[in-house]
Write a structure and sequence with these properties.
Layout (H helix, E strand, L loop, with lengths): L3 E2 H10 L27 E2 L21 H8 L3 H13 L7 E6 L4 H8 L3 H15 L3 E4 L1 H20 L10 E2 L4 H11 L13 H17 L6 E7 L3 H6 L5 E2 L4 E2 L3 E4 H10 L35 H14 L9 E5 L2 E8 L2 E10 L1 H12 L7 E5 L21 H12 L10 H9 L7 H7 L20
Parallel strand pairs: 1-2, 3-4, 3-6, 5-13, 6-9, 12-13
Antiparallel strand pairs: 7-8, 10-11, 11-12
Family: Belongs to the NARF family.
Protein name: Iron hydrogenase small subunit domain-containing protein
Organism: Synaphobranchus kaupii (Kaup's arrowtooth eel)
Length: 465
């Protein structure tokens, strides 16, 4: 989705699932030439017609309100440059404190581009950001730990009430904004009650920065400009959701999302030499430098919600320890399942479903009551988060498979750390949230998903390549 051309936009509108839309285009209508692409504000020339990919569907404006379009259009490199420029010109008392949070799935991209290990590439990236005027650089692994732990607990609660709550299972993961938008705007009440209420790592990180970190630094939340670097354009859409604006703090949890590719573009514009960059350690939300080293969670490069929830559920519900998860490939590599069995009985059956073609297969089965899974990890990008269009898109709008493979290898090199044994998470549960099941924890770590008002559930769109 790095470029959205007119030919692709027109075809998307013709196949869009939205029934009433002022942006519907005709073959001869010149207005299509004037409409902007939401993802990054770029529209290429009409002669560059490409086949539309359903995985890119959010780059047309059919599902966006005018306010969403306006907010997303501001999330670009120019906005970051504007804030940096204002800081240089205005009085120090009016400066914005710039905080950047790096998604762990973005770090392998820079490792490959820099020809360095992930840890050293991250330190170089941190050095670049701070040389521009960024004050603090975090990674979001800590926030992802919160999201995983809350998802684990929610699944156990849902499983235990499955016999008297028809919406308890299956539970769908909630960290992918492309999937969430599709569920809300297209699938409606068929799916939304089944979506896990735990916030995504990005939005948990937003709460951490704008609430806990600002308290630690004795700063008003509005003083902080929070940027997230992510592998996916759709994360921009997540950041502008109405529920992620705090009227109490008068601030958005995340002010701007930039993709890995956009940050790399800025480095290229400035003709930055990686060799000349300082190697600077990441910061920590507690205020000190983070010298502990980078870690990752279990799974295939997308925070491993399925694996963490599966192992926790096996232990909590059945007293079984699962050390290794074996995936069974069904339709393709992006549609896999795992099972927990005892004495010939299937106790748990989970699935990982990536890419909209596989998602449609899942939904068709759900409509027919043929979904045997208690949990489904759903991601809109084929290949998962590492293959996000903000960093892995190659020629013709397709994923650069060589780059994706290199990023997978780089990500796999990081050591695994379970969130359950992370003392920093337990410290934050107490110091920040006053306990795991407190009202503060519910507000900071959870949200709700539902179909928008005045938009009835829509029929599934036709198959798109």
């Amino acid at each position: 989705m790095s470029e959205i051309n007119i030919g692709r936009r027109k075809e998307k509108c013709e196949n869009c699932s939205k029934q009433q839309c002022s942006k519907k285009q005709s073959n001869e209508g010149p207005s299509s030439l004037q409409e902007k692409a939401v993802a990054n504000g770029e529209v290429s020339e009409p002669h560059q017609v490409q086949q539309v990919l359903l995985s890119s569907c959010l780059s047309c404006e059919g599902c966006l309100s005018e306010e969403e379009s306006r907010c997303i259009s501001q999330q670009n490199l120019e906005e970051l440059k504007r804030v940096l420029s204002l800081n240089k010109r205005c009085d120090a008392s009016k400066h914005k404190v710039l905080v950047v949070s790096l998604c762990p799935q973005s770090l392998p991209f820079f490792a490959v581009k820099f020809s360095l290990g992930v840890a050293e590439a991250t330190r170089k990236l941190c050095g670049f950001l701070k040389s521009m005027g960024v004050d603090h650089v975090f990674d979001t692994t800590l926030a992802a730990g919160f999201s995983i732990l809350e998802s684990q607990r929610e699944f156990v609660r849902r499983f235990r009430r499955r016999h008297h709550d028809s919406h308890a299972l299956p539970m769908f993961t909630s960290s992918c904004p492309g999937w969430i938008r599709y569920a809300e705007r297209v699938l409606g009440s068929l799916v939304t009650p089944h979506i896990c209420t735990a916030k995504s790592p990005q939005q948990v990180m937003g709460s951490l920065v704008k609430d806990f970190f600002t308290q630690q630094q004795k700063l008003p939340p509005g003083k902080v400009f929070h940027i997230v670097v992510a592998p996916c354009f759709d994360k921009k859409l997540e950041a502008v959701r109405e529920e992620f604006y705090s009227s109490l703090l008068e601030s958005r949890d995340v002010d701007c999302v930039l993709t890995s590719g956009e940050i790399f573009q800025m480095m290229e514009e400035r003709k930055v030499s990686v060799e000349d960059l300082d190697s600077v350690p990441l910061d920590h939300v507690f205020g000190e430098a983070d010298e502990a080293g980078l870690v990752r969670h279990e799974g295939r490069g997308s925070e491993g919600f399925l694996e963490h929830v599966f192992k926790n559920a096996a232990k909590e519900l059945f007293g079984l320890e699962v050390n290794e998860i074996v995936y069974k490939t069904l339709r393709n590599r992006d549609f896999q399942e795992v099972s927990l069995e005892r004495d010939g009985e299937t106790l748990l059956q989970f699935a990982a479903v990536y890419g909209f073609r596989n998602i449609q297969t899942l939904v068709h089965r759900m409509r027919k009551g043929r979904v045997p899974y208690q949990l489904v990890e759903v991601l809109s990008c084929p290949g998962g988060c590492l293959s996000g269009r903000g960093q892995a898109e190659g020629e013709g709008g397709h994923v650069d498979k060589v780059l994706s493979q290199q990023m997978e290898e780089a990500y796999s090199s990081l050591p695994v750390r379970l969130p359950e044994v992370n003392p920093e998470l337990q410290r934050l549960y107490q110091d920040w949230l006053q306990g795991q099941d407190s009202p503060q924890a519910l507000q900071a770590l959870h949200t709700q998903y539902s179909q928008p008002q005045q938009q009835p559930p829509q029929t599934l769109p036709p198959d798109i390549q």
